[in-house]
Amino acid sequence: MLIGAGVRRDEDHFLVFERLVNAAHMAAPDAAICFNTNPSDTAEAIKRWI
C-alpha cells in the first residue's frame, strides 16, 4: 500500500493520513506500507518493500 505525500505533508490532511494508516494496518496487518515523496518516486517506494 502506498500513501502519497499529498496526504502526509498537508497539515489540513494530517488527521486523514493518520486514519488511513490505522485503517490500512487494521485491514491488512501484515501489509507493508510505503511512502513516496512525489509521483516520480512511487515505483522506487514500492520496490523497497517487494
Please describe what this structure looks like.
The protein has 50 residues and is mostly helical. The chain contains three helices and two strands. The chain has helices at 5-8, 14-27, 42-47; strands at residues 2-3, 34-35. The chain has a two-stranded parallel ribbon. The chain is flat, with a radius of gyration of 11 Å. The chain starts with a strand and ends with a helix.
List the helices and strands and how they pair.
Blueprint: E1 2-3, H1 5-8, H2 14-27, E2 34-35, H3 42-47
Short recap of the structure:
The chain has helices at residues 5-8, 14-27, 42-47; strands at 2-3, 34-35.
Key terms:
50 residues, mainly alpha, two-stranded parallel sheet, 3 helices
Global mean pLDDT: 84
Total number of beta strands: 2
List the total number of helices: 3
User: Which geometry do the CA atoms define?
Assistant: flat
% residues in beta strands: 5-15%
> Taking strands numbered 1, 2, ... along the chain, how are they ordered across the largest sheet?
1-2
- Terminal-residue CA separation: 11 Å
The helix content, as a percent range, equals 40-55%
- Unreliable stretches (pLDDT < 50, length at least 5) are none
Question: What's the helix-strand series?
Answer: EHHEH
Task: Give the radius of gyration.
Answer: 11 Å
